[in-house]
TrEMBL record:
Coiled coil: none
Protein name, per record: TonB-linked outer membrane protein, SusC/RagA family
Top-rank taxon: Bacteria
Keywords: Cell outer membrane, Membrane
Cellular component per GO, a single term: cell outer membrane
Domain TonB-dependent receptor-like beta-barrel: 114-738
Subcellular location: Cell outer membrane
InterPro entries found in the cross-reference section: Beta-barrel_TonB (IPR000531), Beta-barrel_TonB_sf (IPR036942), TonB-dep_OMP_SusC/RagA (IPR023996)
Amino acid sequence: PDWPEGATIFGAMPEGNVWNNANLNYANTDWWDIYFGNSVNQKHDISLHGGTDKVSYYFSAGYMDDSSVLNYGTDYFKRMNTLGKISVAITDWWDFGYETRFAKKIREKPNMTNEGDYSFLYRHISRNYPITPLYDGFGNYMFESHIPSIEAGTDKQDDIDFWNNFRMELRPLKGWKINADFAYNVYNQEISEVEKYIYTYDVNNQPYENGISIPNNLTRKKYIKKYWTTNIYTSYDFDINEEHNFTILAGMQFERGDESWVQGYKTDLISEKVPSFPTATGDALLSEALAHNATESYFARLNYNYKEKYLFEANVRYDGSYVFRNGKRWGTFPSFSLGWNLYNESFWENIEPYVNTLKVRASWGQLGNQNISPYSDLELIPISADKLNWIFNYGSTRPVGYTSGPNLVNRNLTWETATTTNVGMDLSFLNNRLSATVDWFERRTIDMVGPSQAMPGVLGTSVPKENNSTLRTRGWEISLNWKHALENGLSYNLGISLYDYKSVVTKYFNPTGTLSTWYEGAEVGDIWGYTVNDLFRSQEDLDSYLSKVDMTHIAANWNTGDLKYEDINHDGKVNNGTNTIGNHGDLSVIGNDQPHYQYTINGGVSYKGFDFSMLWRGVAKKDMYFYRGSNIYWGFMGGWWESCLTPEHLDYFRDQPGSKYSGLYEGDANINTDAYWPRPYLNNTEEAKNKNHANTRYLQNAAYLRLQNVQLGYSFPRSITSKMHLEKLRIYFSGENLLTFSKLPSGIDPVAPVGFPTGGEFFGTAGSGRLTYGADRIYSIGLTVTY
């Protein structure tokens, strides 16, 4: 975003602050330019393939180095990967295959010590004052720049993922196949977190530990996962009079995983340059976790095809999972599908010139979801080794282990069942140049895990959950594609797709209908909020309204420039009633934070070796409300230290002449009663009434359109590549995230995550201060060489 000049933002402060005036000087720092720059990334891939009529092989390797656009600290991602395949025809009826995959990923980033995790970096930068200098008088980084925090330690994660896959196919008789495959995976993850002291320099240029520092420390974590899965199945293909074609398949699948997690922590590193447990002298903690998982499945399938006109398929699965107890462990899940190729009917000959193909299809099926925590049916006794320092006069030198009573468990938890119904059709026109696909679906998930019936408070523990909830999702998708090749060698294509879905809670145990959780009839993503059409522009307007409407539920004190909450149920007061669906006072559904009417547009052109392609993605409807913690959105926060002002935020309400800052907003020039933003208070309590309640005035339109990828390439003609002993040579330029059209305030990426809801009292509200910086604009040049 654009930031105001340092003197402007300082002079625009609605309240004076001697500490700010004395400490922050009059710099004019562009913090985004300080923190972020350009980076050069690289990605290389190579592949090799070949073979004979009996043996074929394939090998590929890749390397990627993604450096950060952050100018300070250590921040990068690297990946190395290989893939090898070999297929051998041992006999005419026996094939064998082997595949191995290896990937190593390294991610290192600043841990920000205890200034919040890495996701808070964007927030930290946004609240820096432009009038704060980068360096002090001795050339040291100012602590307020947060650069000392960025460079005070890193989190490094090293992942190794290794797969081995074996497969075999036997064909003992015509049409009969026996297949078996086995896969084994070892996943290794090592994490090292080093937090160093943060130093600030005094007036004599002497370093001292900043108050935000914690004891320097080292954390090491090691996670190992060993997983294997095997499939054994057999199929038989046969036909009757070459018209009725059948395929029968049956098989089984087994999988098992073993996981272990060990974590060590120790404080007071003797040397921060060589962080290790032996060179740390402080407190030490050690923890460990073990997990085992397994599933077992049996499945069968029947396919029927009559002259490529009528298609039928039936499936059934019998799945068992370790997360459920005996008697609830197994579930049966069938599915069916039908298809009708009308264009293969004899009567289609007269229609074919206009509609080349038409296929109508429908399907119905069930799948199981094991959406519960393992061992939920066991009464587990937690063990703790805390020091019980809360006991009066106990002291902190005698660690005492203790246990607490187990929670109640529900031994009847079982599979959630998702039933999906789909109908659709595929069409093509104009000699198959224009094609279209239309789909409609409904997914109904029953036996979802939800809350049990409430128990008296004297129970003393939480009530276990039950399979008692239902969620229904309905959606549709339409896609159109056009492709055409002209006689002069020019070919082009254009595709458009549009889809949407809506999820509604149809069953949920919420007898009071409270809005703070799901309730029957709730649409997922609904934002409940108040209706606010304006601010209080004058004292007369404020006094008149308060004489008729009681707003003490929102706040006790009101001033001009505050939000004017509407009494939409006309009961003489503004409140949320009992915050239930039956009595929600002046609340109503003002928006929905789920993406609706999502669409993609893709296109391409090729001519005499040149090729061009593009991909656009967008969302036509989405709402978002940002709470008080979103400083990048609101600008003014609970204090100057938390505020983040752009020129747009200077359009805040003020109705008093200015006299404090000579020449800047002086006299009546300071008055702005037609402002967009409410009166700033720089006080968390007072700010809450204007920012913490979702409302229609500040509900944001989060729809967007983004040019996600565009590529321009040239493939050299065969007359040139043959002289270079090359099969193909292509050079290309690619750009990602080059354009974004959005109505959100500058600096907020409509696609970037916004963190967790904070401060909201109503179900379905959205937004948080944990904004991360958005997608990078990436330019790349590539070369493809085929021998």
